[in-house]
């Protein structure tokens, strides 16, 4: 059973990683096709409302359904889960279609929130067209999500993983080919090209759903055999089922759309604030860099660190429920240390090498470099919020996650315009950082209150990690300036070489310091220490 769980988790994690990997690197050809930050802004104007609507349409139900089905399957009450699945398909079809109608009809309203000045690059009609193009995906995605939840509830992660990858591949192929054909073959407008690119979400969803239908058809006989083994001793009404589901699902929704909510605040206020200080024309490309180009790069260290640290959260749950608070403290220590150990150097690395990073992924841009340089360290806060929210879920205090997120969003909303007026694009980043920081502090206080957790060890290790990062940063800066005499960071190939050499220098220094102080062994165990020793011997250090 344990090996099956590990295998299933690995398959789903691998599918998610491949999907995110593809979703990161498609921006390189896409950016080249659409030709710059202005078009990227238009793309983001459509996608931010879509992410909000898709979260409302699904309401975290698929994940909760998978847990519900798994719970009753363990009791051999298979008919309960099947009844929930069938009603869930109907419910998700209705909510998906209603969400589509709402987003389609209110597209001009959302567009007017963004476009506040005639001097801006795009009109209200342009933005409304893009929002309407992406809204069609809402018809399919909730239905598809409930099917993924059904398979996961049966401890079958393969269908979800494969459908995620197929969905992403189909979406990106349609997005890239469609945008290219519209612009470079049919010589259409950039609005038409971006509309096709956002409509790709619908095409991807159809492809992912077809994969799930195939798996369901293939496994239908086995699923029906399970129904014949149903004990029939439990009778749960649909009302009670959905009451339990929605209560547990709501916190997941808020955590899942945290980034989208912050982006929505930027979307509504950014152009307005920039227009107020006479920067209406500069607002569109700056927004594209902030919420599309830089965002894609900033998420890299967040994905790497949280995927590792979040595997420790279920262990925290088990220890907390059993009342073993010493083990909870040890696991929290490990979670926070691993998170900071991985996220801090990755975020600082992107910040220090912002110029070559931006050049490799997009183009050489002074504004892009400045924004990415400021934005990259905020990834540490993104990762900390996700993990602290996960821990609160593990100790069954997820209500405070909703509270802390709302406080952070309100701070972002109140500070965004004044900070943008003071610091322009960087002001939006500062407002985001303040909002997340306050949310994290609230989460940390709640964790301490309910687990009696002491931050003393984490504080000491954090100081050590920051010291190592300072030394690493100095080495990277020196290496970067030496390489800049021979290589041009404005050239994609040469920028890639700079990143590779500087990353190797930084990683070597960081790993060596961690090994010499035995920090790596304290966090990752004896195997990591032995690995470091072998590497050290093989290199003759």
UniProtKB/TrEMBL annotation:
Location(s), subcellular: Cell membrane
Transmembrane portions of the chain: 12-35, 47-69, 89-110, 130-151, 172-190, 196-217, 245-265, 297-317, 338-354, 374-395, 402-423, 429-451, 463-483, 495-513
InterPro entries named among the record's database cross-references: PG_synth_SpoVB, Poly_Biosynth_Transport, Polysacc_synth
Membrane topology: Multi-pass membrane protein
Pfam families: Polysacc_synt (PF01943)
Any one cellular-component term (Gene Ontology): plasma membrane
Alphabetic keyword roster: Cell membrane, Membrane, Transmembrane, Transmembrane helix
Protein name: Uncharacterized protein
Native source organism of the sequence: Bacillus smithii 7_3_47FAA
């Amino acid at each position: 059973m344990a090996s099956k769980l590990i295998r299933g988790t690995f398959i789903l994690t691998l599918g998610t990683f491949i999907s995110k990997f593809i979703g990161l690197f498609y921006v390189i050809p896409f950016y080249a096709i659409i030709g710059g930050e202005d078009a990227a802004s238009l793309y983001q104007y459509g996608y931010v409302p879509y992410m909000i609507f898709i979260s409302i349409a699904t309401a975290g139900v698929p994940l909760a359904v998978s847990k519900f089905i798994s719970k009753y399957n363990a009791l051999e009450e298979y008919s309960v889960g099947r009844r929930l699945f069938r009603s869930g398909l109907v419910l998700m079809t209705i909510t998906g279609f209603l969400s589509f109608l709402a987003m389609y009809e209110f597209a001009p309203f959302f567009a007017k929130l963004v476009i506040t000045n005639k001097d801006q690059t795009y009109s209200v009609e342009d933005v409304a067209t893009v929002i309407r193009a992406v809204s069609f995906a809402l018809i399919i995605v909730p239905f598809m999500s409930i099917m993924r939840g059904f398979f996961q509830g049966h401890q079958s992660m393969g269908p979800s993983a494969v459908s995620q990858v197929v969905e992403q591949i189909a979406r990106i192929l349609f997005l890239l080919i469609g945008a290219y054909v519209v612009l470079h073959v049919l010589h259409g407008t950039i609005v038409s090209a971006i509309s096709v690119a956002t409509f790709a979400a619908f095409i991807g969803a159809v492809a992912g759903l077809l994969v799930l239908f195939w798996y369901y058809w293939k496994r239908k006989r086995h699923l029906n055999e399970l129904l014949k083994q149903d004990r029939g001793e439990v009778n749960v009404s649909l009302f009670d089922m959905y009451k339990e589901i929605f209560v547990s699902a709501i916190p997941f929704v808020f955590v899942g759309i945290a980034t989208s909510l912050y982006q929505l605040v930027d979307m509504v206020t950014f152009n307005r604030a920039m227009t107020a200080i006479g920067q209406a024309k500069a607002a569109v490309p700056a927004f594209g860099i902030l919420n599309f180009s830089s965002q894609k790069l900033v998420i890299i260290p967040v994905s790497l660190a949280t995927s590792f640290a979040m595997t420790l959260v279920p262990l925290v749950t088990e220890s907390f429920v059993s009342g073993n608070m010493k083990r909870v403290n040890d696991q929290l220590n490990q979670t926070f240390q691993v998170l900071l150990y991985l996220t801090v150097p990755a975020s600082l690395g992107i910040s220090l090498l912002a110029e070559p990073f931006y050049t490799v992924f997009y183009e050489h841009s002074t504004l892009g470099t400045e924004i990415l340089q400021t934005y990259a360290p905020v990834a540490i806060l993104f990762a900390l919020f996700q993990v602290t929210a996960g821990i609160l879920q593990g100790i069954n205090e997820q209500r405070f996650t909703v509270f802390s997120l709302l406080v952070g969003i309100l701070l972002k909303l109140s500070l965004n315009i004044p900070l943008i007026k003071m610091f322009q694009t960087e002001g939006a980043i500062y407002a985001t950082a303040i909002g997340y920081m306050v949310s994290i502090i609230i989460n940390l206080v709640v964790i301490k209150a309910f687990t009696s957790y002491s931050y003393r060890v984490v504080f000491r290790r954090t100081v050590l990690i920051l010291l190592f990062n300072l030394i690493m940063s100095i080495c990277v800066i020196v290496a970067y300036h030496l390489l800049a005499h021979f290589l041009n960071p404005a050239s994609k190939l040469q920028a890639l070489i700079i990143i590779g050499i500087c990353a190797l220098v930084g990683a070597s220094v960081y790993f060596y310091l961690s090994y010499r102080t035995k920090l790596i062994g304290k966090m990752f165990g004896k195997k990591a220490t032995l690995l470091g020793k072998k590497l050290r011997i093989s290199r003759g250090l």
